[in-house]
């Protein structure tokens, strides 16, 4: 497994793979790798000849009061996991390698970032879109793999790739969950024992809402208030949003008349958790 910190070496290695006719798959991550990340690696290995992983805790996507400093950094274990999964190349740069201090350019994806996490994390999606655009130039892969766990991020990246004509295929991958339903996240390790016991209520509420909506008969407002009630019952009081949005444009829906996504963000103590599930429009038997 090749492990590079430098942009130059990474670019050269990727160029060589591609000159040899190999299809390169990219999995961008912030490290603290878990089964969710490794599912993307496996998808990359199935879909491509070469799997490349980037591990970079991107400072520009964290707000001033967020957890950049405390974000888990487990590089040694991450590299072991990547080697075990058969990753071919890992790019793990320093912040100085990626951000020279001279940058004056940001990528901003409008509209899709206006709702959901956007207002709660000002500047976050600009940080994400800009680093992903940079990574796509540093490591010009043929395909890139993103988790549906971060559904708004996936929508933003897809939009950016189409709008800016990046010659890269974006492959969405389903959310990997713990056996009790909790969506895997690097941030789950912040949870106290008690918080960890309450956290699966988020996924449980989402799946209950999904069945209610797909069965038809219940309106969006009722389903949203049912989710809020379930979260409160699990003493998850700090709810940032519970929204049902169009799967493509992320606009709030008042009824599920097209493919939708139910999205939740909530805090448990100091930990911010997000999750979402798909909803198909209910079948009309008319
Ligand atoms: P992160 O390291 O949190 O920035 O995530 C890197 C990539 O892994 C993103 O595309 C995430 O959506 C994806 N990811 C994180 N958690 C999961 C999960 N539980 N299931 C599937 N993909 C995930």
Distinctive features:
binds adenosine monophosphate, alpha/beta, 286 residues, six-stranded parallel sheet, three-stranded antiparallel sheet
- Over all CA atoms, what is the radius of gyration? 19 Å
Strand order of the largest sheet: 1-4-3-2-5-6
Helical run tally: 10
The helix content is: 25-40%
What is the overall shape? globular
Main sheet summary: 6 strands, parallel
Give helix and strand order, one letter per element, not per position.
EHEHEHEHHHEHEHHHEEE
Q: What compounds sit in this structure?
A: adenosine monophosphate
* Structural classification: alpha/beta
User: What portion of residues belong to β-strands?
Assistant: 15-25%
Report the end-to-end length measured between terminal Cα atoms.
57 Å
How many β-strand runs?
9
Task: Flag low-confidence runs.
Answer: none
- Overall pLDDT level: 97
Task: Give structural notes.
With 286 residues, the chain is an alpha/beta fold. The chain is built from ten helices and nine strands. The chain has helices spanning 7-19, 35-47, 75-84, 95-98, 117-120, 124-138, 151-163, 193-198, 200-215, 220-233, and strands spanning 2-4, 24-29, 50-55, 89-91, 143-147, 169-173, 238-246, 260-268, 271-279. Strands 1-4-3-2-5-6 form a six-stranded parallel β-sheet, sandwiched between helices. A three-stranded antiparallel β-sheet has the order 7-8-9, covered by helices on one side. α7 (151-163) links the parallel β5 and β6 (169-173). The protein is globular. It binds adenosine monophosphate (AMP).
